[in-house]
Amino acid sequence: MLINDWRNLVFESDLTPKARLVAFALAKYYRQGKECYPSFSTLRDDTGYTNNHTIGDAVKELQEAGFIRVRKGKIRNLSVQSQSYEFVGVQTGEVTGEVTGEVTGEVTGEKNALEIENKRNNINNINNIYKKNTKKSFSQEFETWWSEYPRKVAKGQAEKIFSRLLEKKKVSFNELLDGVKRYAEHCRNQNTESEYIKHPSTWLNGECWADEFEKKEQDFSWLQGVK
What we know:
about 230 residues; mainly alpha; two-stranded antiparallel sheet; 9 helices; 2 strands; elongated
């Protein structure tokens, strides 16, 4: 199996999105027949994740699913212990897994030329998949929900939680939309200051779409005595 076949298997697997994205980032550093050594800091930069726990969880998931082998390096000068990554099932072959997609080998006849061209095309397809997964995008459903939320902070974090909730079918989009509209109306009725409005991610993690609010009764006391 070549590295582009490995990437395809990852993309078609049931791995979580974060594990797939980290896998694509690792494959960026593949060298033919050799292990790679990207640091967690490098993987954070490539994936956009902001902490080592997320990277570590993704690496563990890839390891448990049998896609990679992880080897601990030696600790030198009291520095952080390095890790190397082996891509399980990937053989030494004609195609390097580098994102540049360089193909090695001589072209000996029309058949070989066609095979190499197909390999180039496969690598380009993987590159497109990698770029698509590393670029942040927001679904139309999320944008609709976001437009209703009364405090717009930490949009990226909110989108991740929003997508995960829908993916796991923990809540429907209509429930999220109805819930945020009720919350926004409640904040308006109570004249809630911005700093006391929940962060979007807090609202989603707390399953606040199910919250119920008492309607604010209008004060008609001023009408007493009016004939």
